[in-house]
Design brief:
204 residues; alpha+beta; OB fold (Dihydrolipoamide Acetyltransferase, E2P); Cytidine Deaminase, domain 2; 2 domains; 6-stranded mixed sheet; 5-stranded antiparallel sheet; 5 helices; 22% helix; elongated
């Protein structure tokens, strides 16, 4: 599915529309899951007939565009806010010849409902950190320590499960209640798991 970001109408200048030419618009689309940008050319009359405007959700198949049937979102508002927050900070860049940052971004929601973000930092030694732990440390820096939800956006836009070190930190942070922490595994379907499901028995 795609969201219509903009519709650019053709400009034929003072010469007007050439004879026999159907006026077409460039429709700028954004993949609702990956954020990938796509542009398709659609006849102006077709956009009007199908009621496609900026902000609409559409489907594109074999170059044809159609307005998507309205359906309730698979993610609730809190998950959508977290996903947007993580995508806003996910920006992979080379900080120095030894450090890469931002390939993965994470968001955690605290018990109070606040959202904290973090990005992965990769170094040539063991000084780096995962995005989830970075987000958790951000939460701790701001005086909170209870997590209710967590998600991580991978370089390809998909969701990723926390690694062993990130799970261990969450367990140590909330040893009696870590089982209830929700993890978003797939944004498109809204599939989630709980930390207790993927970390059933702690080593202590």
């Amino acid at each position: 599915m795609y969201r219509v970001k903009d519709i650019i109408e053709p400009d034929f200048g003072c010469e007007g529309l050439p004879d026999g030419t159907e006026p077409c618009c460039d429709v700028l689309l954004e993949d609702t899951e990956s954020g990938e940008a796509v542009t398709v050319k659609v006849p102006d009359a077709e956009l009007y007939q199908k009621g496609i405007t900026v902000g609409c959700t559409v489907a594109v198949e074999e170059g044809k565009i159609a307005k998507a049937a309205s359906a309730p979102p698979v993610l609730d508002e809190d998950w959508r806010k977290m996903l947007r927050a993580a995508k806003e900070v996910r920006w992979e860049r080379k900080v120095s010849e030894y450090v890469l940052a931002g390939g993965v971004a994470a968001a955690v929601m605290s018990r109070s409902g606040r959202i904290y973000t973090g990005v992965c930092v990769d170094t040539c030694s063991t000084l780096g950190i995962c995005a989830e732990r970075n987000a958790i440390f951000n939460m701790l820096t701001n005086g909170e320590q209870e997590i209710t939800r967590v998600l991580a956006v991978m370089p390809d836009g998909r969701m990723g499960a926390p690694c062993g070190a990130c799970r261990e930190l969450m367990v140590q942070l909330m040893p009696k209640t870590y089982h209830a922490i929700e993890i978003l595994m797939e944004a498109k379907s809204g599939r989630t798991v709980r930390l207790g499901d993927i970390t059933p028995e702690w080593w202590i």
